[in-house]
Amino acid sequence: MPLRLFNMLTRKKEVFKPARGKTARFYACGPTVYDYVHIGNLRTFIFEDVLHRALALNGYKVKMVMNITDIDDKTIRGAKKAGKALKEFTDFYAKEFFKDIKKLNILPAAKYPRATRHFGEMKKIIRILLKKKYAYETGDGIYFDISRFKKYGRLSGLKKRELKIGARIQADEYSKDEPSDFALWKKKGPPAGGRPGWHLECSAMSIKYLGLPIDVHAGGVDLIFPHHENEIAQSEAAFGKKFARFFVEGEHLKVEGKKMSKSLGNLLTFRDLERKGFDPLDFRYLTLTAHYRSPLSFSWKSLEAAQRARRNLMSRSNADGRGLEKFQDKFLSRLNDDLDTPGALALLHQTSGRGPLLFSDLVFGLGLAHPPRAPKIPAEIKKLLGRREEARAKKNWSGADKIREEIRKLGFSIEDSPAGPKVKHTLS
């Protein structure tokens, strides 16, 4: 069965085949490096990695480019608030991003271009758009005229009557309620001489490294409008060619059914997961249990279940290698049906043998080749354990019991013995 992907441009599953030879040119929207990436971002990066691996498993040479947005409204605001130079501020969070994706077994892209290093390419596109009358200049910037691009709204489903002709918007992010002429270049504010609009950054970098058309453009559903819509408009208006053949968009992750936000206090990063003793690959497993086009509701209970299931698979790593041929065909039929990872995972759990385990892990990336090791005891738990021992030494039994309860809530149990307390994860 050939690889079929749901193309947001056509709203249907289509057989994927590269436009040029056997190389799949793949552009993925990367992080805006103004903070640690949260687990919702990471779900998107995992889905993009599964797509990368699926393309490779189907025999394609994959040329993947993922941008790093190191200049936009958020990064400038964040650097100013932190009292740091923009480069110092964004370099720190870019390094943290690369640490996170390494822990997740995400395959490296061929290129990670940074927006601040591609102003020349962006200005070139602006000059073309001005010459073709798709753009115009005002006192505060240069804007794309959405009324001139007749296909505007095709990706996001906007109707022509919904467009606010003549209205302008400077913000990088805005809702479908205000589809207006968007900024290609902003004259005001840092750095001196102005800066590009966010949408232009991705067009310039993807076209430079992949050419036109891009075979697959991937990201989260929150980027469909305005980001991906605006990328299409400015790229196709400038060069008169199709920008991307497939738009593949991943759904949101929610925490306990609610959207993540700082105000709700549920904006989680890897640091929160590791503090409770979870392996990043437990989270990777959890994301695979939901189809990438379905919302995923994160909870600590669901992560515990994912940890148990992953460890169960790892415990089979020493089994024999029989049954691989039949498994391969069934596995690929599920994977190639628009990346049906829940179906492929279910198949793996129904199959015995080391061969299927290793073959499936070419896509799953769950580190299934080795038996499970006891989860590491986080530093926070070790500190609590030390405090409990101090309380016990002072015969402060109620204080020791309170600390035991704190430790239990973090997912660990204590067994007192003559040799000292033994602490273990409740799932180990």
Explained architecture:
This protein has 428 residues and is an alpha/beta fold. The protein has 3 domains: 4-250, HUPs (Rossmann fold), CATH 3.40.50.620; 254-364, no CATH class; 379-425. 42% of the residues lie in helices and 15% in strands. The strands form 5 sheets. Strands 5, 6, 7, 8 and 9 form a 5-stranded mixed β-sheet that branches. A 4-stranded parallel β-sheet has the order 4-3-10-11. It has a two-stranded antiparallel ribbon with strand order 1-2. Helix 4 (119-131) packs across helix 5 and helix 4 (119-131) crosses helix 6 (224-239). Residues 16-307 form the tRNA synthetases class I catalytic domain.
Q: Give me the count of strands.
A: 15
| CATH hierarchy: architecture of the largest domain | 3-Layer(aba) Sandwich
Number of helices: 14
Q: What gyration radius follows from the Cα positions, in whole Å?
A: 24 Å
- Proportion of strand residues: 15-25%
Overall geometric form: globular
CATH level 1 name of the largest domain: Alpha Beta
CATH homologous superfamily heading of the largest domain: HUPs
Fold-level CATH name of the largest domain: Rossmann fold
Provide the helix percentage. 40-55%
| Major sheet description | 5 strands, mixed
Which stretches of 5+ consecutive residues score pLDDT under 50? none
Structural class: alpha/beta
Distance between the termini: 39 Å
pLDDT averaged residue by residue: 91
Tell me the domain tally.
3
Order of helices and strands: EEEHEHHHEEEEEHEHEEHHEHHHHHHEE
